[in-house]
Amino acid sequence: MTAPGERILIIGGGPVGFALALDLAHRGRASTVVERDAGTGLVLLAKAGFLNERTMELFRRWGVADQVAHWGCPEDYPRDTTYCTSLLGHRIGTAPLECARDRIRPESTPEINRKCPQYVLDPLLAKLAGESGLVEVLYETVFEELTEEADCVRARLRNTRTDTVVEREAPYVVGCDGAASSVRQAVGIAFEGETLDRSVSALVRIENLENYHPLGRAERFMFIGPKGTWANLTSVDLMSLWRFTAVGVSPDADLDSLDLTEELKRALGRDDIPFEIVRNVGWRRSQCTAATFRQGRVLLAGDAGHTTSPTGGHGLNTGLGDAAGLGWVLDAVLSGWGGEPLLDAYSQERRLVAIRNSTASTSNYRAWVGGIDYSGVLDEGPTGEEARRDVAAHLDEALYPEWNSYGVAMGYRYDESPVVVSDGTPPTEDDPSIYLQTSRPGHRAPHAWLSEGRSTIDLFGSGFVLLSFSPQADFEPLIEAAAQQSLPLQCVPIADEAIAALYERKLVLVRPDGHVAWRGDALPDAESRDRGSGAAALIERVRGAP
């Protein structure tokens, strides 16, 4: 049994916190998750739950992709977005997206994006983490303060039901406790950025909505007025639950008590559609980033480190990427083969990704509300028709990156990381919609099918993997150097010309998170200073040696 002081302490039992616990358990590492609620998924959340292809690859690694993909939502429900003045008003246009049944899997991944609302996802992750036998969950418990010592962090927690103090010692504390993170505040990490607007979301239950309007089924309806987009209605479960969000609420309004009934009726276009507003949640749409994701033995992940406009669905996916990026680093440092600089590398890598992804989301949001004159969209006759055509053309172009964000999902890279060895090749284009596979250091190692149902992606996730595409390649010095530092390294020969061409070099070293750490046609020469000092120096670099 793992002693309490050996467990990584995770503050926040949302999807990022449990994903981190699951990743650590996947590596045989124990953790404790602290959650203020009495359980997981007790409250229906007004969140849509879009999971991109890269996130589905992570779930594939953790062995839960099928459960996430096939939780019960209809496979034939279209993912379209329809722009309109109301459901019974003017149709302005539609951005079509295929349903899960008809979606074509991209050549560069073994997975497709999926829809899984958080009221399904969170309990699933919590259940799987618990089944690992390595995750302790402290429900009805809040974090109060911490004290960092030379070899541990001492945290004071409080059980809210019994009002008793719980003291815990941990090698590391990870704040996964949201945008108002108590952990981040406790260590004084700055959190700066900008507020984009104040919004209110209502979780609404409407049965068979398509029977009450002529616009057909769609995953999202965006409601356009003379000042731009004023609200949207997005399916949460592709069945009867919807998230209705009013955009740009007055600064003087009390967000938590604001009644959206009249706004919802305005969007529906009629008063006789039966609906139930389950819950209102006021929130601040923002783009903020922590100054660092690491301070000593305290680290941040998810919304504790970055906030993102939901326009694009990148917030949750970025947070889950944090969990995958942090799990192997913590395990490496605690196992002894990884150096402390790996923790700084995590901070640098994921912070840059957070800024990249949140900037894309902010660009999407600004396309919703600006960029063109909307004043004529409600007009009748030729003037109104022309105005709506202009708006449709603008939204089709401006929001294409939001509806087609494969590049954002798959194309993030760590090519500036201190634990990645550059080969001097120029950066590839970082297009929000287009992703081209490359084995360039810092990028996600490319997917290719090795056999029926088995991908190169499935090779990664535990230790380092050296892919060898030439029987003549000498990789023994790297194996020996890794063994000397107890760095887990497996060599996998691949005798497939097409995969060799995709990977571009004879030797490619891939990190436990599936990103390329180094590549070359031969191991670096011990005499070549520009490439390091041989295999031993390469191992020192990628393991974050002090």
| Strand order across the largest sheet | 5-4-13-14-15-12-16-19
Q: Determine the number of helices (DSSP H or I, runs of at least 4 residues).
A: 14
Strand content: 15-25%
The helix content is 25-40%
Q: Which structural category do the helix and sheet elements fall into? A: alpha+beta
Number of strands: 25
Largest sheet: 8 strands, mixed
Which terms would index this structure?
single chain, 546 residues, alpha+beta, FAD/NAD(P)-binding domain, Glutaredoxin, 8-stranded mixed sheet, 6-stranded mixed sheet, 14 helices, 25 strands, globular
Descriptive notes:
By secondary structure, the chain is of the alpha+beta class. Among the domains are: 4-72 and 114-192 and 289-364, FAD/NAD(P)-binding domain (3-Layer(bba) Sandwich), CATH 3.50.50.60; 413-542, Glutaredoxin (3-Layer(aba) Sandwich), CATH 3.40.30. The protein is 29% helix and 24% strand. The strands form 6 sheets. It has an 8-stranded mixed β-sheet with strand order 5-4-13-14-15-12-16-19, sandwiched between helices. A 6-stranded mixed β-sheet has the order 7-2-1-11-18-17. A 4-stranded mixed β-sheet has the order 23-22-24-25, with helices on one face. Strand 22, helix 12 (476-484) and strand 23 form a beta-alpha-beta unit. It is globular. The model is unreliable at 528-532 (pLDDT under 50).
